[in-house]
């Protein structure tokens, strides 16, 4: 991300797509943009449907059949079935909507989010109590890649 304010562009119009693309350079973060909201609309609507007890029961009885009632992509459905929350975020999921899925599974927010970090619940909780991850070295995927002399990958997130 640059320190330049995109609203103060004396050289002409701002390329909003380039500006929004800078958000993809933040390691470990998926900024929930309008593009992601459109991509994940049906996924998030599915997750919100689990707020109703009768829908939770239908979901628990046959997850795949319940998912097939929603116009989601196959990739989104497979990620839900795998409970791959990082992938679901990449596919337009909103963590606060996806909370309905892991809550239905009986997981706390702490338990679910720890699975997204590759850390145990205990290690994740201790890290967060101690103030969270250090921002050192996690400011830019591109800068990290350039410093390591390699190509950025999804794993860099």
Fold and architecture overview:
With 157 residues, the protein is an all-alpha fold. The chain is built from eleven helices and no strands. The chain has helices at 16-21, 34-39, 41-49, 53-61, 63-67, 74-82, 85-90, 95-104, 109-117, 121-129, 141-148. The protein is globular and about 55 Å long. The chain starts with 15 loop residues before the first helix and ends in a 9-residue tail after the last helix. The model has no long low-confidence stretch (mean pLDDT 85).
Helix content: 40-55%
Structural class: mainly alpha
Main beta sheet strand tally, sense and closure: none
- CA radius of gyration is 18 Å
Beta strand %: under 5%
How many H/I helical runs? 11
Tell how many strands the DSSP assignment holds: 0
Calculate the mean pLDDT score and round it: 85
Unreliable spans: none
- Following the backbone from N to C, one meets helices and strands in this order, namely HHHHHHHHHHH
Q: Which shape, going by the Cα principal axes?
A: globular
The rounded distance between the terminal residues' Cα atoms is: 15 Å
